[in-house]
Design a protein that fits this description.
alpha+beta; Immunoglobulin-like; 2 domains; 9-stranded mixed beta sheet; 9 strands
């Protein structure tokens, strides 16, 4: 039976199923790529407390209603280029998957200096950072704290100045 109804309808049905499968795979890949790329560079930034000086002690930023972060560079007094900085971030109301501190020059592109922090037994995130050599006598920098959570990235930035001469 060369032209029975079942054999004649199989190739078009098979083609339709293949097209539907390919369409479903394409849509699934689009959603996957969209999900993976949606957070790249998309940090919800919150302002730091005004008048805070990192060279005097920890600075606080509220991340909405019930969340906050505190950054401490571990230095009291002048911050100098090439000085090792014991970084500490404390979080309240935030369940972080990862915490990092970025140092970026405010008035001059000095590159991105990223330092991942590790969770300590006391619930604080710690690490060590360093400001690179500066070409200016005093150079403005910004410490950006980025917190990765299950709901996306949160962050705040803190301005400070660095003396260009090494310790």
């Amino acid at each position: 039976m060369p032209d029975s109804p079942t054999t004649a309808s199989r190739p078009p049905l098979l083609r339709l199923l293949v097209l539907l499968t390919l369409g479903t795979v394409a849509i699934a890949l689009w959603f996957l790529v969209s999900h993976l790329l949606r957070d790249i560079g998309q940090v919800r930034w919150y302002p730091e407390s005004p008048e805070c000086q990192l060279s005097s002690g920890p600075c606080l930023a509220r991340l909405g209603e019930e969340r906050q972060l505190t950054l401490d560079l571990g230095v009291r007094g002048e911050i100098r280029a090439l000085q090792r900085l014991p970084l500490e971030v404390s979080l309240q109301g935030v369940k972080a998957e990862r915490v990092m501190v970025d140092f970026v020059g405010r008035d001059m592109d000095m590159g991105l200096h990223r330092y991942p922090l590790s969770l300590g037994a006391d619930g604080h995130y710690r690490g060590e950072g360093q400001i690179p050599i500066c070409t200016e006598a005093v150079m403005p920098w910004r410490a950006r704290v980025v917190i990765e959570t299950a709901d996306g990235k949160l962050g705040s930035g803190f301005d400070f100045e660095v003396r260009g001469d090494a310790p």
